[in-house]
Structure formats: C-alpha cells, structure tokens
Amino acid sequence: LERMLAQAWLGTVVSGSVKWPVSGWKADFNVLPSLIEGHEAMAMKDILVKAPNDFDEDLDGVDKMLTYEFIIASAGAQKAHDPIRERLRQKLLDITLPIIKSRIEPFVKQRYPKAGAVCHSMIRRYLLHERRTHNTHWDIPSYVSVVVSLDSAG
After folding, report:
1. How far is the CA of 109 from the CAs of 26, 102, 106, in angstroms?
2. In b/e form, how buried is each residue of 71-81, taking b as 16+ CB within 10 angstroms?
3. Is 0.90 topped by the overall pTM?
4. Which residues touch 2 (CB under 8 Å, ≥6 apart)?
5. How far apart are CA 100 and CA 19, in angstroms?
C-alpha cells in the first residue's frame, strides 16, 4: 500500500474529442493507457469475483438496462453506506484511494483546475451474459468523469 501511495502516474496521454450524436456538441477526452498497473486491476478483480451477489441490479438511467454496479464511495448515494457490504467496500477503497489521490486527482486538477473533489466511485460489471455496453451519455452532475478499465489494466 505504501508503494502505491508514493507512486505518481507519469505515462502517455492521448487526447481527442467526440461529436455528440444528436446536438453536435463536442466532448473532449483524454486516454491514459497505463493509469493503473496490472497487479492493481487484478487485486480488484480477485476481490470482486468472490462477491458476485454484491453488485446492485437497479435500472440504469441511460439505457434502462440493469446496472450491475457496486458503489465504493459516494457523497450522496445511500448504497455507499450499507453496513452489510462495508468490509468489501473497505478492501476496494484500500486499492482505489491511493490511485485516486496520487494519479487521478493530480491529473484532473492539472487539466481541469475548477474540478472539485472526487465525489463518487463505483465499479460496473460487464459480463458476457449480462450487459456488454453503456451507451454514449452525459454524466449530468459531473464536471469531470473518469473511467478506468480493469480488463486492460489502465
């Protein structure tokens, strides 16, 4: 854990933009190919594979499909405070907080100086027999959204 706390991210950034499908609005994005290390992604997946029933199956607001998500931390979501899953949540926080504090927050603050604190962290599951996509959408309450893939280690 101490090694992860001290390790800042110094990788390559690939930047671009995508035109919004209907309105023509343009969204800028950055891809950080090696933001997390393989062992960090594997540690999270090892924890989550043992907890398949702890993912919420609410209807998604974007596409009305089941969410298959686990909220790690949230300023407002009640599900981030359920005592039954607190032990699982803490295991994930032990891995994700150092990544957020030492890599994600410094990058976001540099690119988006007006960005506030990280206020929501979750894991969404995409399995072959479940949902496989999440359509293009705008995270309305978010000034900046960060998506990390655990399958590509970054």
Report:
1. 21, 11, 5
2. bbbeeeeeebe
3. no
4. none
5. 28
H or E, element range at 5: helix 2-6
Residue with tokens 């926080």: 93
Which pLDDT tens digit goes with each residue over 22-77?
A: 788 888 888 888 888 899 999 999 999 999 999 999 898 888 888 899 989 888 77
- The 10s digit of each residue's pLDDT in 94-136 is 999 999 999 999 988 988 899 888 888 888 888 888 877 777 7
Is 60 in contact with 67 (CB distance < 8 Å)?
yes
Residues 106 and 89: their CA atoms lie apart, in Å, by: 23
Q: What is the crossing angle of helices 86-99 and 38-49, to 10°?
A: 170
